[in-house]
Every structure is written in C-alpha cells, then in structure tokens.
Here is the input.
Amino acid sequence: MSESGAGPQAEAAQASAMEFAAAWAASMTAVFSQVAGTPIAMECTDAAPPEALPPAASDLHMIAVFAGSLRGEMSLRMPRSTALSLAQAMLSEERDNSAEFKPEHKDATEELMRQVAGHVTTAMKARWGDLQLHVQPAPAPAWAAGAVGWVASASGAPISAWMEWQLSAALIAQLRASHASAAPASESIPAEENDVRPQTAGAGAPPPGNLDLFMDIELDVTLRFGGRRMLLREILDLSPGSVVELDREVQSPVDLLLDGKLIARGEVVVVDGNYGLRVAEVASSELSGSLASHAAREAEA
Here is the structure.
C-alpha cells in the first residue's frame, strides 16, 4: 500500500484503509460463496498476490462512489481471467479458463459486484453509518490513489480470483477521521485532538481540531470559467472547430471550486505558460467547511 507521507500519519492511513478493504473482502467472501454454492474465501492484503499481473487493456475496472457518512471513490481492477471465473459462477456455467469472454460475462460480473456493494453497505453500517454506494464500470481512475492494496482468493479456493483496489484521497481522509474518532480516550492524544465525535450520515467534516491530521492530503481544485446546458443533439453535432458559448462574460471573475463548492473567485493569469488564478475574493465560510469536508472526502484526483 502507498500513501503520501510517512510516520504516524501514513500508519494511520494504512490501518484505516486496510480495515475498510477487509470489510469489502468479507462481503466478497459472502456473495461469491453464495453464488458459487461453495466457500470462496477472499483475503485482503497490502502486497500483490503472486499471480497478480500488471495493468492490461483487457482488465475490467469498476468504480465505487460513496455518499452519506463516507464520501469518496474506490477503484477495483480485475484481470479478465478473474472476471470470467466470477461470471461463469454467476451464470452457473462450467468453469473454463480458455472460454471466450463475452458481453454476457461482463454483464454478469458487473451485476455480481453490485451485489457485493449491496452487502457492503449493510455490513459497514455498524462501523461507518449509513452509506449510499453506486458501483459501475469505468476507465482506470485518473485520480492519484491515496491507498492501494489487493483482495485475492485464499490458497486452495475453488475459484482463483484477485483484484487491485485503490482508494481516493477523499475517502482516505474520511476513514482517517473515523479511525481517529474510534481511538480509545486513554490513548495519549492531546485534548484538542481527542475531542472527536462519530460522523453522522451527511456530516462531511471532521471537528476543526482534527484538521492537522489532514494537512498532507492533496486536494484537487477546479477552475470554472462558466457552463451551459446543451441538448443531446447539440452535443452529438460537436466536431473539431465547433464553438461552445458559455454563460459568463470574458471580464467576469472565474470560480475556484473544491469538491464542487465555491471557495474563491478571481482573474485568470498565465504563470510559466500555465493557467493560474489571481484570487480576488475568498468565500471564507465555504472555504473552512469545504476544507474540513474534503479532508474527510476528496482530492480526487
């Protein structure tokens, strides 16, 4: 597993991520075993299993988007061999590793992972509260992972399967906040950091005293020049050379967004050939709330 930083903060992130991934492994064990009609133990590890392969174009990627008491994203990468084995179990087909991977196998694998997601939301409720979880196929994540690890079938399992998982920095931040809130009061924690209350559904921000836990988390901000609603036919008619008019004049200030929330406005400048922003106005209330929330949610990188 990798996470930026070192020392106690990295160790806390690793512990939080492994606890979270272990819950996924337990749900996979339950769902895969039920579908296959035989026990299939899935284990979580921060080291790649011996059979793991580098990323390939044929890999199947799934993205799990969390909302509610936890916010952020989790990416799952599985090789086609794993997807085929799981799909064959889902469709009650004879296991054949040399079989062609057909569209119905892809659909079956995606449905199986949605069943795992449903199990996860129920199993995690006692630890992390009410979660909303949406799982769908997606390209390999463009964001920088806050943590990386693996889930693989145990030795001797009737189905050989493995997946690589990645957690977004947003999700890691919230897991770290949750992990800190669960720490025993007897631990040697300064009083201002020990005043941590469990997150409730919809509460995106950790207590202000815990912000120092997240100062090394990288957060993605977005510069918004404007927007526009377009008809589907207008989108389909786009071609090289098309001009899309936005809802903002050239002299209007542009917005700086964090997690979709406005945190500042200013004018566009060029710095060493790159776009930049000269801040003219800071939305202080939104800034503090968004930083705390995003330290418990995203960098999405």
